[in-house]
Amino acid sequence: AQSVAQPEDQVNVAEGNPLTVKCTYSVSGNPYLFWYVQYPNRGLQFLLKYITGDNLVKGSYGFEAEFNKSQTSFHLKKPSALVSDSALYFCAVSPGFQKLVFGTGTRLLVSP
Amino acid sequence: DSGVTQTPKHLITATGQRVTLRCSPRSGDLSVYWYQQSLDQGLQFLIQYYNGEERAKGNILERFSAQQFPDLHSELNLSSLELGDSALYFCASSLPSGGTVSSNTGELFFGEGSRLTVL
């Protein structure tokens, strides 16, 4: 069965510094990998996805993610964090055109 | 705005009661998914419908049921409610008509959720 792990419940970073939110996955076959963000009292919003191709995927709001097959990881990154990036971030995996399986989420807190 | 509409936004009810949550997917999307988000369980997939038919089932209790109607809106029915059913219930949609199942790479569009409180 497919699964994702987000090892950090919370990530703290100062505004202007680079940020990384970690995700590792387990799936049989080729993974479809996603990052979503959830702001307080809102639904999840799609950030980016990896299907095939370049290992570095660029998404919304300046976020990018690096797919590493050998390490089964799909870490979310941003070169310079903003206070407004503070939110709950979910990594998700899909075996293809079916339901997404989400990780437990990582709360990102960007301090001014 | 994702284009997915969920009603009601908030619902407070008592144990043993039954509630219905409604979801209108993005215009033309054929697939509807229901997720439950709670503090202790995280985001759990409940069930998926595609063009009116059940496509995949997750951790959905037997007390819960769902359906997708010909106009593609969906309803999630929760019965014999327990305190532990208090959660945020999300609906998501994907796969516009004209797309194929194999071309659906899984990007979901979420509504803002229905917050259920069982007292």
Structure description:
The complex is a heterodimer of chains A (112) and B (119). Chain A starts with a strand and ends with a strand. Chain A has strands at 3-5, 10-14, 19-21, 24-26, 32-38, 44-50, 56-58, 64-68, 73-78, 87-94, 101-102, 106-111. Chain A is globular, with a radius of gyration of 13 Å. The relative contact order of chain A is 0.34. In chain A, the strands form three sheets. In chain A, strands 2, 5, 6, 10, 11 and 12 form a six-stranded mixed β-sheet that branches. In chain A, strands 3-9-8-7 form a four-stranded antiparallel β-sheet, with no helix packed on it. In chain A, strands 1-4 form a two-stranded antiparallel sheet. Chain A is built from no helices and twelve strands. With 112 residues, chain A is mainly β. With 119 residues, chain B is mainly beta. Helix content of chain B is 0%, strand content 54%. Chain B has no helices and eleven strands. Chain B has strands spanning 5-7, 10-13, 19-24, 29-38, 42-50, 53-57, 64-68, 74-78, 87-96, 109-110, 114-118. In chain B, strands 2, 4, 5, 6, 9, 10 and 11 form a seven-stranded mixed β-sheet that branches. In chain B, strands 1-3-8-7 form a four-stranded antiparallel β-sheet, with no helix packed on it. The mean pLDDT of chain B is 90.
Order of helices and strands of chain A: EEEEEEEEEEEE
Strand content of chain B: over 45%
Considering DSSP H and I runs of 4 or more, what fraction of the residues of chain A is helical?
Answer: under 10%
Structural shape of chain B? globular
What amount of the residues of chain A lies in strands?
over 45%
Radius of gyration of chain A: 13 Å
Structural class of chain B: mainly beta
Low-confidence stretches of chain B: none
Q: What is the distance, rounded to the nearest whole angstrom, between the alpha carbons of the first and last residues of chain A? A: 41 Å
Largest interface: A-B, 23 and 27 residues
Please give the number of β-strands of chain A.
Answer: 12
Taking the sheet with the most strands of chain B, its summary is: 7 strands, mixed
The low-pLDDT segments of chain A are none
Number of helices of chain B: 0
Chain-averaged pLDDT of chain A: 91
Please count the helical segments of chain A: 0
Oligomer: heterodimer
Strand segment count of chain B = 11
